[in-house]
Amino acid sequence: MELIDQHTKKIMEGCKERARDAGLKFQDETLEYIVTNRDLLELSPKIMIPTLYDYWVHDVEVLKEKGKYELYPGNPYETVINTRPAISFYNDNNPDWLNVMIFYHVLAHIDFFQNNLFYRHTWDYDFAGQALSDKRLIAKLRSEHGRWVDYVIEFSRGIDNLAGYYYELSRLNRKENAGWSNQIDFYFDVFIQKINKLSVHEYIKEIERYNECLKESGDLGEETFMAEIDSQHPEFKELFRKSLEEKPKSKQDLIQYLMEHSEFLNKEKNKWMNSVLQVVRNTSIFFQPQIRTKIMNEGWASYWHETLFLSDDRIGGHEVDFARLNAGVTSMPRVGLNPYALGMRLFYYIEEIADKGKLSFEFQKVANAEERKTFDRSTKNGRSFIFSVRENYSDFMFINKFLDQDFATRNRLFVAGRRLNRAKKVYEYYIKSRKLEDYRAMVLDSLYHPPQIEIDTEKMKDNSLYLTHTFENKPLVKEFISNTMVGIEYLWGSPVHLETHEVVAARSVPSQDLTLLGPTPTGDETAAPGIKWQKVLYSMKNRKLTRKIL
Amino acid sequence: MDPKLLKYFDRIKDRGFTPEREKRILKELHDNRTHDDPGGLQNITSASPSSIGFYGYNDLLMLQALSEPSSSYALRLKSLDELLERDKQREEDGFPRKIRVGRLIKPGKGGKDKIVVVPTTVEEKFLHDSIRETSEEESSSGGSGEGEEGEIIGEQPVHEQDGSGSGPGEGEGGPHEMESNAYDIGKILSEHFELPNLKDKGKKRFLSRYTYDMTDRNRGFGQFLDKKATLRQIVETNISLGNIPDPGNIDPTGFLISPRDKIYRILSREKDYESQAMVFFLRDYSGSMSGKPTQLVVAQHVLLYSWLLYQYDKRVESRFILHDTDATEVPDFYTYYNSKVAGGTKVFSAFRLLNEIVEKESLARDYNIYIFYGTDGDDWDTGGKEAVPELKKMLTYSNRAGITIVEHSYGSSGNTEVEKYVKKSGFLEKHPDLLRMDVMKSDADEPRLIEGIKKLIS
């Protein structure tokens, strides 16, 4: 890997100026490296982080099943990585005009990394530096414990997608003191909800009363409010005092729970394993936002490389080259989901409706289609609005809120289905549905969404660990359960149970052998069987898996 | 349906079958597939557009048109060894194995076979699975453009992966293929294997390998004095000088020694001659071999074939025989590998053809003969009435015959027709160095195949 030459760096600096003028915000320093195929071989399994810890799986082709990209948060072929300074990678022989386009794309990514709140936890340190020290730590442990380090890495990577990314984020975004006292918190959050169990209606009345007190008495408002409570509930003060003595329980994800409660990990000779778990967990949490903002991030970068490139005075004469390449990147595929295309179009669309003032209650009330079309309040705040979207949204929210009927109609979106036509021996692609809700459901369904797996301390007996997979109408990938649980059992040191739901096929599927016999007359192929669920309990004991229907 | 087959079926029916077997035989009998060559290579098709999803797109490929990184096979050789070693260690440590060596042979016509090796592993996690409503025939993705609901907008041919193509552990759309010729896999395998019972036979062939030995003689100077030859020379010299009047009573003290009498040996390049071997690959390609059994058999034969190519370079000739109810010899590995399954099963047909070939060409005189046979263990010929005599004849000339049986998941273990009659024949005990049999389940993986090879040729 080598840095780009001075000439190219100068182009980059020119791009930075223009991007800043347009409103993008990013740190001054960036690093640009030229990569060869050989570099990529080393980088891609390490998710483009040159300093990531060594692990043997990185040396092996990892079997990626279709649609299982979610195994690897963070995209293996990203051009730019979220380090400080941000590092980006380039092909050796890009012409200048192409570099201009890619630089804008990269700068928009950097702007996104450094301003989108879902990346909040990555802002305060340089991950490349962190990764390097982790790498050295793991190398040191390896020299002491040999292959057992790799087992621990493997087993903790097996559960790293369950890491509590949102817990971490909320911890960071919580204000230390929101301007009211713990008393008030305790009163509203615990006392009247859990102890006195007021109805919603009464709860709201209490809030109103609190706001009234503040309005009337200003600084003394809280005291006025509390005085009322003391007279009504003499026990309140005592309860509040007790609550302060209790240790605040923070929610823990599985890795944290193991680190704290596993007897095996806390034996003197196994203490080192905890640091491995910590490294794996941090790495996973670092990459989480990348995968949760894929559409927005690529859309945002595409929006800006297009906008800024076309207004760049340095690339005259290359408009056609650009158009050709840009179309390849950002055209809506006839069949398929292209995050660049979808994200970019959504940003343009949001900007436009914000400009026309359509993001308002006033517009929502308009029922007449013609009026809706011509509605224009010329608020011209579209640009600033998309900047706030880039700051506050993730893919799920972005799609859920902005992908509406007008957008779907304009882009002629539909859900494409694929089915087997046995007679012709082809897969047919067909238009399955043009309904907005179907399209949105399909997009949301294809987003990264790891299972929610909680530790159920209530159900733990004789030192076994009890995990509950929250039911969301989705089963777990069966063939992965066994090995994942072998790992958890190893780290926990005692048997592990997992409660989950599985689909009971309502219709028996013909066995593999029969389907190979070519066209077999099947009965009713169109009737999808109704899905029936059953609760099952997997137990891993001494590396043997058993399954029980609950 | 073939009337000849029907007649044969009626004949063997009198011997009686279990209903289970009858069902299987009937299935093959009514099987109207043909053994056609799939035509062209079974390249894994790239993922269809709908399967990429959002996370399949990335900047380096989309914007900079970089090709996906791919590594040369040579780099992988070492790591593959290490990986397999590591996997063995896993088992010893009490964890399930993880590495799968997927490989793909791209048989070319005219001996230009290429093999792509992909060691792969999966990182298991708790993940959501999609609910497949009808065994993956239906899937949805996004789309845009014109058209009414229900309208068909495109078609994509289905590749029937049937009896050829990928072996176990082959990943989806392996973009990171490593190409090599069969030689490379062989290199990995050879550390563990050697052809057993290799005997000197027939006219030896020279090959381009040299051994260095102190074989050249040189008078006057050199690296290593050949005392015996030197003494002889001295005696000769002295005879011609008339220094030895009486051979019965020699006085060596009076010998004259010329400098040229000293004979030295010096290091020299020697051509090496090796015995010749011929390997016959036989496999059952009847209807019942559909799917896993065929995959495993051809996978194992790929490994064997690769190893032979490497270890014995071009000095091992390979011949290929396929059989259903009739056996036929095919010209190259390509056809052998790719022919599809169909028809009924008579194991002895293959054995008989093999014996005929060996006899007609009198191969036994000049060649070490090895035979590898793969089957799912089904045979219409109950009790091996016809097969066992042929097998017996085979053992008279072969250096080793190895039978691989891949049991179907249905049916009890150790109960296949072929296994029963081979065991009953007693050859396994009588000629343990000539005949080996390996029985595996249809869910065997790569390491298991390699274990099997060890068993067959140790």
Task: Describe the structure concisely.
The complex is a heterodimer of chains A (550) and B (458). Helix content of chain A is 50%, strand content 12%. Chain A has 550 residues and is α+β, with helices and mostly antiparallel strands.
What do you see in this structure?
The complex is a heterodimer of chains A (550) and B (458). With 550 residues, chain A is α+β, with helices and mostly antiparallel strands. Chain A is 50% helix and 12% strand. Chain A has helices spanning 6-21, 37-43, 96-115, 127-145, 147-157, 165-173, 182-195, 200-217, 221-232, 236-245, 254-261, 271-292, 294-310, 319-330, 339-355, 361-365, 369-374, 382-392, 395-402, 405-410, 436-445, 478-492, 512-515; strands spanning 2-3, 30-34, 61-62, 80-81, 86-90, 413-421, 426-433, 453-455, 465-469, 496-504, 532-541, 544-549. A 5-stranded mixed β-sheet of chain A has the order 8-9-10-11-12. Chain A has a 4-stranded mixed β-sheet with strand order 1-2-5-4. Chain A is globular and about 80 Å long. Chain B has 14 helices and 14 strands. Chain B has helices at residues 3-13, 19-29, 59-62, 73-92, 182-190, 227-240, 292-311, 333-338, 347-360, 363-366, 387-397, 417-425, 427-430, 446-457; strands spanning 100-106, 114-121, 139-144, 152-157, 179-181, 205-219, 224-225, 263-274, 277-284, 316-323, 327-330, 368-375, 400-407, 435-441. Mean pLDDT of chain B is 74; it is low at 38-50 and 160-181. At the A-B interface, helix 2, strand 3, helix 3, helix 5 and helix 13 of A face helix 3, helix 4, strand 2, strand 3 and strand 4 of B. Strand 3 (61-62) of chain A pairs parallel with strand 2 (114-121) of chain B.
